[in-house]
Task: inverse folding
């Protein structure tokens, strides 16, 4: 069971930052790192090293360019260790500030050491809840550096973090005789630290959805899944009891599938009324809920018919799609990538959105917290940002000649030897492109063209072409050629274009097989989910002063990280 | 669930820039923590100012992380001196230093024990817990008795934090000195029954670490541990689920009852769960009509309690917990339970890529035994262009596993998916290979219809025309497997392949096709193409590559053997010689019916005339090929030709040649790649590593224990709690399982109603899954109410802690009255 034997952290140059041993005599970081790096990339998260003594299982994650390694000599549950590594990264970030940088760890070894020894005790994972850790470990703070910790009694309540209140020093119950500080009485809610105090009470909901869409060569979506996460930031005094209601035009139960929840969420409430999240939040930022939405719906499979009726194709509202055509030109070495932008995301608020009803949000807080500038996209007028098209290429491609953006803006980058073409279009260029849209609901398009160049020697022995008879056994048309009948002798003599056909065939191997789009859209969610209300249950909440209504903010973000993929 | 830092990185766009900047700056960042000379550092540590000491300690701790211990050891005494410091931050850092260095200086470390021991009686529970943790963490064996005493004190502590530290100290103390085991077991038994769930969770973890075989300690705590499962932290849940898997296997015999399929209403299954004798007699009487009987697993009520309690954990954010619940259902529960875990298992695929990879292994493992429920989640298994090789390998396997069970539309989709990756210049040759193999597996699966198989074959045949050498070679390999499995139906496929010989240029592909033609040379003799193919190939023999030449010679030999066997040379003095060989062939192609008796006689009649004029074309071809090989450059080829020549020297005795050349080939089996790991337990690291870690799993791998035999299980009465009145006892043993369970859930449901007004709907539902999670609700609400009480009686602080502890104790022990009591307090 002794799951965790040691933890090693390396920075982006693989120089060791930290080695912490918990139990046993695991091989040191300098031993396992070369063995880890010897594994060809991409490296799996669990590698077995039979050559170390004792033979070791090496778990690894990479977070913010930092490499976390944990060796283990015994069979344990792999996910247990990996989850722990993620929690360690989360806790370090929580204490040292985001993003997690090597220099921050180096500057606060004392805090890191305390955290690591609290989280795992003798190889057994003890406590990973950030709030519980706040109770026992003091976060590094500007205030403390200023005072140098002089004269502060040992019982400094750990709630004295800068996020608490600048007046907390004076309001601290210093004249107490009994040295039992308040923070040391165990918190009644395991995930919330005791005695939270904030001067400004704030609640933020951030819903982030990640798109994963695969389209077949015909443009029909094969799968379209949107993975959602609700990140919650609670900066509220006392023990608030919150009710977050999310809604959706099609009904939450039909939309949201396979949800997972932070332990604070009352599962019964969700089961009774899907969409209601009732919980006592931890202090600070945490992930409240994760879910996924199948954008195609359950009947997607039935709509795949052999006949090419476009009318049965499910309609998807994807901000940007890409299609790719290959084997163009006389020698079949050209390809064309067409990027299509959905006119809904032009950033013009004139087009009212069906799901913009979230603006009837209660509370005195407004929507769109912290979104600076009008061009940044709002719920009423979402815009596409950070648009990038990736076109991966086969290894046999040696160069891409004549790569140019034929229509529309952006920079297409490719260096000989690269495995992919990157076509970047920044937000301003997207806006210009959008303005070219003449309406009619088609949206704006842009195209990229290029020519692949393969190996110079076409008649390489092993890679030699196996060009065959002109019988094309196309499985698509299926019925036209029943291969079992020996009668079909379609052996037409190869004509004069035989050599050309041969070259086309060779170039076919060099063609890219797919293209992916990455983007982010603020103020819009693919699933149409929205926050209906966020209420503080005054009766059940404790410690929140009477009449105090926390500031509430909601943010929606839809991203695709090479998630929208079109095949060809 | 994704980790919060990954989500926040999506939210904060400036973050990547910051990271870039940090990377650039990282070369110059070493200045931030410059080293002090050791003398100055010692001065800091010896200083009277707390601030200086703290500063010095920070530097020492920094050093200890960056440099080997030899650099920081000189400060040992200077650091340890500060252990008595009243300042908590100083103390914590001293403790950290002590844990890191105690082993190198055991004698000096012993000096600190006394001070630490004093801290065990400190008023601050945090300090007490810390002291206990540090004391047990010092790896100096002589102090084992002191540690044991410290644990004893900690076990009785009123702060749950200290009790948890005591629980975690137990395995450490055991590792120091195994002789302390009897005392430690006693403490452990107390802690296993602790009312505070995070203490119990830690105690279970300690139990698994120290003495996982002492299941006798668990009996009396079983019924209190299982309901606590839902409230424990994730790591406690993991440990408990692991323990319960072994415990259930060893304590609940698998009772299987056969009932009629038609009237298989759940009521009858649960009511008839009684004694063994009854079960036996019933199974005897119903053995007669066996075929319309169905096996129904009868769950022990205690086991069912565990299975039901697990259900809310499927929505845990911790992927390891989800896998652990799935494991519990797979190995302990019924398929119905397992099916509830399928969705949550699939949902793990949206986590970070490292977790996704491990989760896929586990999904494949479940899918091998229960493929049907995964069919609905096919869209999660489609391969993305961004997937790493270890991920798409498993995804392709999943697609082939669900393939036979999907509706026709899905089958077409999967085949289209696989063929997409097998051609059109895919990025990775490995992916091409794997996709072709996957098509082969799809068509081989026993559940696939003949029509679909034919479609798979058609797909593969289409690949032969590709320009990708990998693809052609791999496709032919798979085609060969398919044909060999069912030679009868694939005669025409071979003809079709032979036609490709005109165009196929890859030597390996040609060799493969020629071999297949040779294998089929004996089938259907009057309409066989083998001879013809040989004739055509002989013309271009000189231009063939060596692998193809080898196969041509083999083909010639086979054709010749068939020819001789079909037309035995007329040697009347030895009629017996000729006879056995056809029968041998007859054996080979049992139902082939490769020639008819009248045809044979026809041949026999014809041959003498031909013999007189000139050799039969087949013989001439054979001799021609052998003649060509004599002058070939490859000695391997020459050697083989020589061997065939010797083998077939006398046309009258072909027995040996037939045995060698026409031996029936074993049908190739291509199981799913993960079949080799099927024996490993779900969720283990051995499952991920496979047999690479040694047969039988990695070190520390525990195989699943077999179900205990009926009658060998420990007495179920051992599980009855001694102190409290169990709901199970209330009705007596005569109650049926269902009734007992109803009683149990009903009573707990009522508690839920009485404590919290929002639970009314649950009570009406009466579903026990809901009720078990309502236990969590109840406790949470109670905390909140406690909190309220606490604030009222803030006068005496020591009392406060005491009372809180007691009230939480009450809450657990009294199940029904508690609700009303709380009302009264209010």
Result:
């Amino acid at each position: 069971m002794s799951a965790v034997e040691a933890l090693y952290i390396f920075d982006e140059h693989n120089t060791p930052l930290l080695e912490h041993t918990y139990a046993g005599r695991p091989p040191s970081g300098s031993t396992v790192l070369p063995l880890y790096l010897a594994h060809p990339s991409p490296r799996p998260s669990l590698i077995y090293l039979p050559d170390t003594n004792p033979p070791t299982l090496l778990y690894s994650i990479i977070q913010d360019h930092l490499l976390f390694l944990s060796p283990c000599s015994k069979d344990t549950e792999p996910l247990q260790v990996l989850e722990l590594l993620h929690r360690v990264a989360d806790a370090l970030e929580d204490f040292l500030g985001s993003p997690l940088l090597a220099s921050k760890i180096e500057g606060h070894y004392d805090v890191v050491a305390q955290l690591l020894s609290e989280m795992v005790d003798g190889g057994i994972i003890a406590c990973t809840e950030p709030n519980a850790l706040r109770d026992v470990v003091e976060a590094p703070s500007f205030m403390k550096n200023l005072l140098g910790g002089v004269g502060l009694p040992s019982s400094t309540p750990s709630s004295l973090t800068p996020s608490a209140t600048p007046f907390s020093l004076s309001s601290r119950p210093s004249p107490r005789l009994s040295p039992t500080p308040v923070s040391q009485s165990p918190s009644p809610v395991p995930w919330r630290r005791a005695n939270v105090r904030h001067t400004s009470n704030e609640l933020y909901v951030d819903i982030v959805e990640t798109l994963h869409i695969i389209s077949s060569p015909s443009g029909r979506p094969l799968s379209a899944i949107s993975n959602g996460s609700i990140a919650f930031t609670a900066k509220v005094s006392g023990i608030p009891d919150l009710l977050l209601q999310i809604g959706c035009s099609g009904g939450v139960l039909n939309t949201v599938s396979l949800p997972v929840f932070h332990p604070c969420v009352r599962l019964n409430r969700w089961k009774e009324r899907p969409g209601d999240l009732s919980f006592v939040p931890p202090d600070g930022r945490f992930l409240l809920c994760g879910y996924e939405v199948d954008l195609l719906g359950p009947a997607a499979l039935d709509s795949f018919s052999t006949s090419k009726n476009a009318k049965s194709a499910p309609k998807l509202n994807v901000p940007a799609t890409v299609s790719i055509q290959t084997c163009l030109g006389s020698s079949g070495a050209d390809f064309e990538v067409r990027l299509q932008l959905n006119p809904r995301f032009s950033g013009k608020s004139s087009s009212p959105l069906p799901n913009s009803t979230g603006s009837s949000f209660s509370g005195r807080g407004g929507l769109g917290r912290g979104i600076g500038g009008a061009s940044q996209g709002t719920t009423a007028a979402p815009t596409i940002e950070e648009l990038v098209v990736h076109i991966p290429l086969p290894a046999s491609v040696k160069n891409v000649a004549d790569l140019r953006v034929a229509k529309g803006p952006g920079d297409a980058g490719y260096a000989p030897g690269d495995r992919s073409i990157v076509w970047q279009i920044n937000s301003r260029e997207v806006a210009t492109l959008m303005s070219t849209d003449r309406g009619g609901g088609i949206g704006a398009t842009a195209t990229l063209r290029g020519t692949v160049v393969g190996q110079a020697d076409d008649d390489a022995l092993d890679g030699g072409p196996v060009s065959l008879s002109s019988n094309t056994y196309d499985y698509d048309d299926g019925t036209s050629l029943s291969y079992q009948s020996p009668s079909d002798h379609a052996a037409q003599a190869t004509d004069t274009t035989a050599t050309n056909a041969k070259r086309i065939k060779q170039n076919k191997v060099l063609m890219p097989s797919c293209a992916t789009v990455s983007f982010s859209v603020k103020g819009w969610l693919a699933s149409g989910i929205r926050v209906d209300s966020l209420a503080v249950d005054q009766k059940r909440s404790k410690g929140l002063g009477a009449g105090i209504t926390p500031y509430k903010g909601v943010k929606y973000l839809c991203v695709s990280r090479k998630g929208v993929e079109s095949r060809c | 669930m994704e980790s919060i830092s990954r989500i926040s990185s999506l939210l904060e766009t400036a973050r990547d820039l910051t990271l870039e900047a940090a990377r650039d700056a990282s070369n110059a960042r070493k200045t931030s923590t410059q080293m002090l000379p050791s003398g100055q550092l010692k001065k800091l540590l010896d200083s009277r100012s707390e601030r200086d000491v703290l500063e010095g300690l920070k530097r020492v701790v920094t050093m200890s992380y960056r440099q080997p211990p030899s650099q920081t050891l000189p400060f040992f005494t200077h650091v340890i001196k500060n252990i008595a410091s009243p300042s908590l931050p100083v103390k914590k850092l001293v403790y950290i230093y002590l844990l890191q260095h105690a082993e190198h200086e055991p004698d000096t470390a012993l000096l600190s024990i006394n001070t630490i021991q004093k801290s065990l009686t400190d008023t601050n529970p945090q300090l007490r817990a810390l002291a206990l943790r540090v004391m047990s963490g010092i790896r100096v064996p002589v102090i084992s008795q002191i540690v044991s005493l410290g644990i004893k004190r900690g076990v009785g502590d009123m702060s749950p934090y200290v009790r948890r530290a005591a629980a975690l100290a137990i395995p450490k103390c055991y590792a120091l000195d195994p002789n302390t085991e009897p005392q430690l077991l006693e403490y452990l038994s107390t802690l296993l029954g602790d009312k505070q769930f995070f203490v119990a969770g830690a105690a279970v973890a300690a139990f698994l670490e120290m003495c996982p075989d002492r299941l006798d300690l668990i009996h009396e705590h079983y019924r209190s541990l299982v309901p606590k499962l839902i409230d424990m932290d994730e790591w406690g849940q993991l440990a408990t689920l692991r323990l319960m898997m072994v415990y259930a296997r060893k304590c609940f015999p698998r009772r299987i009852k056969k009932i009629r399929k038609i009237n298989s209403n759940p009521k009858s299954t649960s009511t008839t769960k009684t004694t063994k004798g009854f079960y036996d007699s019933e199974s005897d009487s119903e053995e007669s009509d066996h075929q319309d009987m169905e096996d129904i697993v009868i769950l022990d009520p205690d086991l069912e309690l565990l299975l039901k309690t697990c259900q809310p954990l499927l929505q845990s954010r911790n992927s390891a917990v989800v896998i652990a619940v799935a494991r519990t259902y797979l190995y302990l529960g019924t398929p119905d339970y397992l099916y509830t875990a399928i969705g949550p298992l699939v949902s793990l695929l949206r986590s970070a890529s490292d977790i996704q990879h491990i989760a896929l292994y586990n999904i494949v493992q479940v899918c091998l035994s229960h493929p049907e429920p995964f069919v609905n989640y096919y869209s999660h298994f489609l391969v993305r262009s961004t997937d790493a090789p270890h991920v798409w390998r498993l995804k392709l396997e999943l697609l082939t596993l669900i393939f036979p069970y999907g509706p026709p539309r899905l089958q077409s989709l999967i085949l289209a998916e696989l063929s997409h990756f097998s051609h059109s210049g895919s990025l990775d040759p490995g992916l091409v290979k794997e996709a072709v193999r996957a098509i082969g597996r799809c068509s081989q699966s026993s559940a696939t219809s003949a029509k679909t198989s034919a479609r798979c074959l058609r797909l593969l045949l289409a690949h032969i025309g590709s320009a990708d050498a990998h693809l052609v070679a791999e496709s032919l390999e798979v085609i060969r497997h398919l044909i060999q499995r069912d030679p009868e139906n694939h005669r025409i496929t071979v003809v079709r392949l032979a036609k490709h010989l005109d165009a196929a240029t890859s030597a390996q592909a040609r060799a493969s096709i020629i071999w297949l033609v040779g294998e089929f040379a004996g089938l259907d003799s009057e309409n066989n193409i083998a001879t013809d193919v040989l004739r055509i190939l002989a013309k271009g023999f000189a231009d063939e590559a060596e692998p193809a030449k080898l196969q041509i010679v083999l083909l010639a030999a086979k054709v010749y053997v068939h020819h001789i066997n079909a037309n035995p040379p007329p040697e009347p003095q030895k009629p017996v010689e000729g006879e056995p060989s056809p029968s041998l062939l007859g054996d080979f192609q049992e139902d082939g019916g490769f020639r008819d008796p009248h045809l044979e006689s026809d041949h026999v009649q014809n041959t003498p005339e031909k013999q007189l004029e000139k050799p039969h074309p087949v013989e001439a071809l054979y001799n021609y090929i052998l003649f060509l090989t004599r002058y070939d450059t490859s000695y391997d080829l020459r050697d083989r030709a020589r061997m065939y020549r010797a083998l077939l020297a006398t046309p009258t005795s072909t027995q040996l040649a037939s045995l060698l050349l026409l031996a029936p080939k074993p049908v190739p089996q291509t199981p799913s790649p993960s079949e080799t790991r099927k024996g490993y337990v779900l969720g283990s690291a051995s499952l991920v590593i496979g047999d690479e870690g040694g047969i039988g799993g990695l070190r520390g791998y525990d195989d699943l224990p077999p179900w205990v035999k009926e009658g060998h299980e420990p007495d179920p009465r051992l599980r009855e709690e001694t102190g409290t009145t169990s709901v199970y006892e209330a009705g007596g043993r005569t109650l049926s399982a269902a009734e007992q369970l109803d009683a149990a859930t009903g009573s707990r449901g009522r508690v839920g109603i009485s404590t919290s007004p929002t639970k009314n709907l649950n009570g009406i539902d009466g579903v026990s899954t809901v009720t078990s999670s309502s236990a969590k609700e109840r406790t949470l609400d109670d905390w909140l109410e406690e909190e309220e009480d606490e604030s009222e009686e803030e006068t005496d602080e020591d009392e406060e802690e005491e009372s809180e502890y007691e009230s939480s104790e009450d809450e657990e022990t009294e199940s029904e009255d508690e609700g009303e009591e709380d009302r009264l307090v209010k």
Q: What stands out?
A: Residues 263-290, 573-611, 723-777, 790-826 of chain B have pLDDT under 50 and may be disordered. Residues 680-707 of chain B form one domain. The CA atoms of residues 26 and 32 of chain B lie 11 Å apart. Chain B touches chain A through 179 residues (CB under 8 Å).
